[in-house]
Design goal:
Shape: globular
Strand order of the largest sheet: 3-2-1-4-5-6
Number of helices: 11
Distance between the termini: 40 Å
Largest sheet: 6 strands, parallel
Number of strands: 6
Length: 240
C-alpha cells in the first residue's frame, strides 16, 4: 500500500499517477532529462519534511517513492527531530519516519552536520518553512548538492533570494523553483478562453490539494508571518 494511502491522501481521488509525478519535477528541461537518462536512480535529499498529510516537504517525499528515476536517500527535519519532538504533529511524523526507515531505508537527520559530504550527483529538494529555507539552501551548497529544487517562496525577502542565487551561480549549481500554478500562464489563458469562447458548455475545473481547514489558519499565518504578498513576491521577482 502506498504511503499516501496510509495517510488517507485525497490526491489519488483527483489526479492520476502521471500527473501527480509531474507536479514534483518538470517533464521537460535539463533536470527532467538528467533524471530520465540516468543509468541509475538519482539520489534525492529532502530538506524539511514537516507534518504528514499537510506539509509540502512530506508531499514531495511521498511522490519520490513512486518515481523510478529518483531514489529518496535522506530526509532532514530540523523541528520534529529536535525541539519539536513532542509538538503537535510529532506522532504522525514519527510514524512516517518509522515506515520510511523500515521499508525504504531512508535516513533521517536533524542537521546537515550529521550527514557525510555529498560526493555523487545529488538533488537537494528544499520544502522547509520559508524562514528556514535560506540557511538550508546555503548548507546544501556547502554539503555538495549538484542540483537544488527550491519550493516557493524560498525566502522571506528578495535580498535573501538574490544572495542565494549568487551563491548557486558561483558554484554553478542549477536551481529549480517551485511556483503557484494558479498564476501560471496556462491557467490565466484557460480562464480567458472560457470567458471569451462564446460557448455555453465550456467548463473549466481547477483542483487543489489544500488540506488546511479554517481552524488551522492561525497556525499557518503564524508560521508564515511575512504575509501572503511578501511570501509570493519574494519568489516571483527572483525566479522571473
Amino acid at each position: 500500500m502506498c504511503i499516501r494511502d496510509r495517510y488517507q491522501r485525497r490526491v489519488r481521488e483527483v489526479k492520476p499517477k502521471a500527473m501527480r509525478s509531474a507536479m514534483l519535477l518538470p517533464r521537460n528541461g535539463p533536470l527532467a532529462r538528467s533524471l530520465s537518462t540516468a543509468a541509475s536512480p538519482v539520489p534525492v535529499f529532502v530538506a524539511g519534511c514537516g507534518v504528514p498529510n499537510k506539509s509540502m516537504g512530506w508531499y514531495h517525499a511521498t511522490q519520490l517513492l513512486d518515481m523510478p528515476a529518483a531514489r529518496l536517500t535522506t530526509v532532514l527535519e530540523p523541528w520534529f527531530i529536535s525541539e519539536g519532538a513532542n509538538a503537535p504533529g510529532a506522532d504522525e511524523f514519527k510514524e512516517f519516519r518509522q515506515t520510511l526507515e523500515d521499508e525504504h531505508g531512508v535516513r533521517f537527520t536533524a542537521s546537515f552536520k550529521s550527514v557525510p559530504q555529498l560526493e555523487d550527483p545529488t538533488l537537494v529538494l528544499i520544502g522547509a518553512r520559508t524562514s528556514d529555507c535560506p540557511a538550508i539552501f546555503h548548507q546544501a551548497l556547502e554539503q555538495g548538492a549538484t542540483h537544488i529544487y527550491l519550493e516557493k517562496p524560498g525566502a522571506t525577502s528578495v535580498d535573501d533570494m538574490e544572495r542565494m542565487r549568487e551563491a548557486a551561480q558561483e558554484l554553478k549549481v542549477p536551481v529549480y523553483m517551485g511556483y503557484n500554478k494558479n498564476v501560471a500562464r496556462y491557467v490565466t489563458e484557460a480562464i480567458d478562453f472560457q470567458a471569451n469562447s462564446g460557448a455555453d458548455d465550456t467548463l473549466l475545473t481547477l483542483i487543489h490539494n489544500n488540506h488546511y481547514q479554517k481552524s488551522d489558519l492561525p497556525e499557518c499565518f503564524e508560521r508564515n508571518s511575512e504575509g501572503i504578498l511578501q511570501n509570493m513576491v519574494a519568489s516571483g521577482n527572483v525566479s522571473c
